[in-house]
Amino acid sequence: MTSEFGLIERYFVGRQPSRPDVVLAAGDDCALVEVPAGYQVAISTDSVVAGTHFLANADPAAIAHKALASNLSDLAAMGATPAWVSLALTLPNVDEAWLSRFCDAFFALADQHQLQLIGGDTTKGPLAITLTVQGLVPVGQALRRSGASVGDGIYVTGSLGEAKAGLDVILHPDQHRETEAQTLVDAHYFSEPRVAIGQALRGLASAAIDISDGLIADLGHILERSQCGAKINISQLPISASLAQFLRERSRALQYALTSGEEYELCFTAAADHDTAVMAIAQSLSVPITRIGEITQTGQIELHDDGAALDWQLTGFDHFKDENNE
Ligand code: ADP
Ligand code: MG
Q1: Same structural domain for residues 130 and 201?
Q2: Can you give the CATH number for the domain in which 54 is found?
Q3: Which residues of the chain have pLDDT under 70?
Q4: What is this structure's pTM?
Q5: pLDDT value at position 282?
Q6: Residue 221 bridge partners (DSSP)
């Protein structure tokens, strides 16, 4: 039986090159890092729990990627550059094959973003992963939810809806034999956090958020913080060919795009005179950015289909919704 320390040493220590700003990584009571002059630290924590965010028997590589991608996505939404991460891992037992796959995927994604694991905690219990990521952003330049104003364009990165369709396949694998099914499952687990876009949007975007609970819910957070409304043209929503093919009906695909959570795409607003610069970012980073509507005065989200009003009642995902409604 491997001890806790043996486990940490074997799987988590010395797996990455040390960043110059890390004075002391895992091994002491705290990690020590140095914040460069002129920068602020953006910090975010996210947990994923077996049975809530993934099935306990899911591929450990998928779990690791999803857990870290969701945290990196929060840094992206603030325009921060990833720097450090802490990992609190709760495991029901020590399964070395599981840990090995988990760590390979975790460090592959972390290395891609020069994100260094600087510490954590390892405990026994129902499978859960809690990450705290920290990123650097020049003083005063973080993208917040509160800066949208009337007339700003509303944009999203990538395409929307695949994560929800992927979950349909994961939960009902026997019902889905379509060729798109695997593409959608991969989209669910292996999203690519929009870190480079978030940084490029510093000074351009007036507000930003990442889509974790669905476009309607997350855009709603921007509107609430910015005290404004939005008009969305559903015919502009970016929908992949795989999703359209899988769902067949246009209205279903659009509803998935509006409500699918765990997309980890960015939704942001920018003044009209920044539109050309925003599109140039999409071009230079080879990631689609689509203008889907604009900020209005009313405190609501109005949906229209190329001018024809819609009265769809849609909400995003809320872990505690059922309890609140009781
Ligand atoms: P303490 O009892 O002081 O909290 P721990 O025994 O929990 O110390 O951890 C010992 C060291 O190992 C600490 O530096 C901690 O940050 C690190 N560590 C523990 N678990 C992990 C992990 N899963 N990944 C990375 N570092 C870890
Ligand atoms: Mg500890």
Answers
A1: no
A2: 3.30.1330.10
A3: 1-2, 315-326
A4: 0.93
A5: 98
A6: none
